[in-house]
Amino acid sequence: MPENQINSVVQTEIERNLLGGEPKYTRADIVEKSGIPLERVIALWIGMGFPVQTDTEALVYTDADLEALTLITALTAQKVIKPEMEVAIARTLGQSMSRLAEWQVGVVNSHILERIIDSDDDRNDIDAIRRNARAIAAETVPTLEALQGYTWRRHLAAAAGRSIAAPDDSTESPTMAVGFADMVGYTSLTRRLDIGELTTLLEEFESLATNIIARGRGSVIKNVGDEVMFSAQTPEDAAHIALDLQDAFNEQEDMPDLRVGLAWGPVLARYGDLYGSVVNMAARLTSSAYPGTTLVDTVMTEELRPDSEFYLKSVRSLRVKGFHKLKPHRLERNKRGRHKSEE
Q1: What domains can you pick out in the chain, each with its CATH number?
Q2: How would you write the pLDDT of the chain (343 residues) with one tens digit per residue?
């Protein structure tokens, strides 16, 4: 049997394994069994990132789907979440899980396909292929699921710890440092590199940046291609992260220079992302920084002035959209006993 046909059989078995059985409910069945109005079912389903079947009589829902819809509405009924937050939370879960699923399915599919091809079973025996696919999926998927659950719990504990450590901060509008680190010349690089080289570059960038941010007691908010957005609970931690990022990338001969921008102040924390003028400020400073340099806003400059580890040099005012005459400072390590800041 050709490899593409084997892959098709494997895909079918994996889907059945993951969904916990064959789809057996129509949309009307789900509404009846869950007691959730149709409009709410559709809104939650779309929020989680799943397409709505146009054929209302099609059997597309499983017992697991029914349970998931019941669980999320139970959170609302228990007043854990507000009704108006329900779809937004479903959307956040869907987007986060979708990204995980994209790489996990590649790992699982490749592993199962290789095992089946390398086995002694007849490649034309569909029943044997199905049995192998089910058995290997049963071994692999629970491991990934357990690891995923552990990672979530660990992050939940860390987030709870940060909240307890800063009881005066609002959960939704904490005060923190926000930073962006951007690879210089990325657009031109994408035109010169092939897919394999680009993959390697992005993997090295994300790996190095994530490692430094985590070691510096910061948090990665998101990676967007050539840029990483991060936060830190103190201005000093953010400053150290920025300088460590610059040092690390300067040591890598095959990596582009970085531009980094930092700002300090209250932000809107919403479903794992950050918003507000502090975020916009950090982004504007990043795009305005020269390659290999770090710019910080006025508020962070004042927070860092007392610290003798940092040298803050005033640079020309910037005119950027949304802000009137930004007066940033360039952040450097304080060497040779220089004055801590220079206007």
Answers
A1: 3-165 (no CATH), 175-342 (3.30.70.1230)
A2: 666 666 677 667 667 666 667 788 999 999 999 999 999 999 999 988 888 888 889 998 988 889 989 998 999 999 988 888 899 888 888 888 887 887 777 777 777 777 767 776 656 677 777 777 777 777 787 888 898 889 888 888 877 776 655 555 555 678 999 999 999 988 888 888 888 888 888 889 999 999 999 999 999 999 887 899 999 999 999 999 999 999 999 998 888 899 999 999 999 988 788 999 999 999 999 999 999 999 999 999 999 999 889 999 988 887 766 676 788 999 999 876 555 556 5
Whether this model's pTM surpasses 0.90:
no
For 302, phi and psi rounded to 5 degrees? -65, -35
Strands 175-183 and 258-266: antiparallel
From the number of C-beta atoms within 10 Å of its C-beta (0-12, 13-18, 19+), residue 221 rates as buried
